[in-house]
Amino acid sequence: MSTGNMNLTLKIWRQKDNKAKGNLVDYKVSEISPDMSFLEMFDVLNEDLVTKGDEPIVFDHDCREGICGACSMFINGRPHGPKEGITTCQLHMRSFKDGDTIVVEPWRAKAFPVIKDLMVDRTAFDRIIASGGFISVNTGNAQDANALPIPKSQADSAFEAAACIGCGACVATCKNASAMLFTSAKISQLAQLPQGQPERYRRAQSMVAQMDAEGFGNCTNTGACEAECPKGISLENIARMNRDFYSAKFVSEEEV
Amino acid sequence: MAEIDAHIPEGELTEKWTKLRSSMPLVNPANKRSIEIIVVGSGLAGASAAATLAEMGYKVKCFCFQDSPRRAHSIAAQGGINAAKNYQNDGDSTYRLFYDTIKGGDYRAREANVHRLAEVSTNIIDQCVAQGVPLAREYGGLLDNRSFGGTQVQRTFYAAGQTGQQLLLGAYSALERQIGMGKVEMFTRHEMLEVVVIDGKARGIIARNLITGELERHFGHAVLLGSGGYGNVFYLSTNAMGSNVTAAWKAHKKGAFFGNPCYTQIHPTCIPVSGDHQSKLTLMSESLRNDGRIWVPKKKDDNRKASEIPEDERDYYLERRYPAFGNLVPRDVASRAAKERCDAGYGVGKSKLAVYLDFKANTERYGRIEANKHNIHNPDLETVMRLGRDVIKEKYGNLFDMYAQITGEDPYELPMRIYPAVHYTMGGLWVDYNLMTTVPGLYALGEANFSDHGANRLGASALMQGLADGYFVIPYTIGAYLSKELATKPIPTDHPAFVEAEANAKGILDKFIAINGTKSVDYFHKKLGKIMWDKCGMARNAQGLTEAIAEIQALRKEFWSDVRVPGTSDSMNPELEKAGRVADFIELGELMCIDALNRNESCGGHFREEYQTEEGEALRDDENYAYVAAWEYKEGVKFELHKEQLEFKNIKIAQRSYK
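^ inputs. structure came back:
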């Protein structure tokens, strides 16, 4: 079914389940078209494995247009592969050459245990959001949306932080497996909006506490997270989060 | 053939919802705490419903097949969400949104439902802003709007090209807040495989834990399906890889009627197919039609580059055929017009199955405005284009990047090549005005139901409907049912109905493995997709549909005797998950063709070649087909038609015109 002329060697992490010991396994794929996406190349390989009666390689993926944040492959030592500003599903084979050897591993972090092969458990991110990544407003009679003007620059900046897709590339690339970029993006989105003010400091404290409880590492300012983020989430968010976290002790009227 | 009752409240159209809402039976707070509700799906409809019901005090269990509720496919919606706010002072109103939606749906939607949708549309925007959803704003700090197809007002709210993402993250954060408080129990990586019906009422589900492969039984006083649409029946669509019909189809097989299955939306602006390896198609938001002009060369088989074709040799066919709406005609009209030009031999690109979407004229226009703002007089063209490009980049940057990634071409330099692709399904589980299916206690929300878009959905209306159903409709209407269920104690899951449902689900899973055939699941999915696209796609006819039905039946037989699913059913097994979904798609595909063959008219996205005007527009038959086709499942993949007659008391039903 393939139509191209690229032949590649893949070294792919196989791991039966959370408890098993994994290892890299070699696979060959041939006649790969440069127009294929990286995951479509995996489809070709998996189809081949299924036809041969082998178990296909398990990996997370869904929207395949770079927005759901499901795909998560560590390709040749970089989360989402060699190109900047994109997710694995947006990576195309034209970014590789015929004859290349490509190493594919799962996200590696204590807080992201491997489930199987390239699939990891990222529910720690959900728990960080559940600890405070929201505005406490029930559905009902919110005031008219335009009753609260928000300066465009502020709204735009909040939007940029909100663009995070929760893929976890920041954690995967960080030598400390820190989730600071992810956590700070949500804190920073809400802290820049007037709606987010009432819970601002409480939010920073409880989300940071949850982040620590999940076993993510600390930040040592290497900036790898920002460099590898497919959505360009800025390190400034971490600075904002730290400011709110430390201010919380002085300005918060309540115990958190 | 029985008529079915949609339970539309009495009274004037504009008062139906308010009156019903104010007189609906309520469940008191103490009782809510002992009532359990199951929500399947965590997209806009599911997440907003789960969060809101939990806020109200119900005990909620929410299920999604993804690893996090934040990844539901609503996340990928790009362009925007409609609301009748009239912030632009351009004559918008609840009535106008109602009217545009009914007309856009080619007069095949329920008046009462659509009016309610238009009424609550404004609350959605208020709610989302209160949650901190960063919608686009103007310099004055107020919300910005843009235009979408099928309307002449600007009522679409947006967040760059990521509106679905931002709205879903709003609903997701509301949901996570309830999860954190222990009021919603979330089951990720779980797939619903059965609805449990006891004494005629939905009482729970069987779900498979996708990590362990275990089947689980879950009780609920009511079951809500917000499980999305079934566009993946075509194999290639803009849907996510995991989007499926299984939850809805299992409900259908337990007695829920399926409404208008043949109404499919083929979206006009998608990136064309590049080869056999393709696993999915990517949408380029309809919002691009605000600033992009669609054209093909006037000469057949013109192989010149776009830039070498002079202005007077280009055919801006939408502007030519529909001067009043131009490039902003509804999606069904735009898609058919593209197909017509390509079929006639005017297509562009290697495959000739594409048309141009060109931003040059508007880039230049924006550039001149910017030059004025910057006090640059008599700017040269290069400066104008540079300034214009910045404006285009701010509006659509992420879409242009996506296009460049996929095609390897720079859309700032060359016009985009686009072609229609399957995007949304207007059909779905039949529901009454209260969003209840024909199985008491079983509800369907958002794209999973059939209710509000008739035969064609207008752009930016899906997000509106998903959130309307979840935030503002179901929380009220479910009370009418649950208020009568207060005496129902939670049913233990060792009840025979649970045991039987689980055995049934297990039987199917084991069978997939046992077949041990020679062909992969994808092989069958691709074959089904091709039949559907060729014979039940943008244009259909009686002969093709009849052939398709026979081909799908044969395919079903082949599937059940020759599919190969490796691994086991009691462990993680993505091939097994796919097999279940494709098995359901095959049955649904047949029903879609049966429905399309039954509907001897053209309306909206359903275009039967036999029924068209001289100008090639859809020709409805209001006398015989102004009804909702609600299909009942019968043993052995048979279907029986029921009709819900549509009445138009507030809108004069007419030939749809965008000229």
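The mean pLDDT of chain A is 95. The first strand of chain A starts at residue 6 and ends at 14.
thumbs up if we can close this ticket
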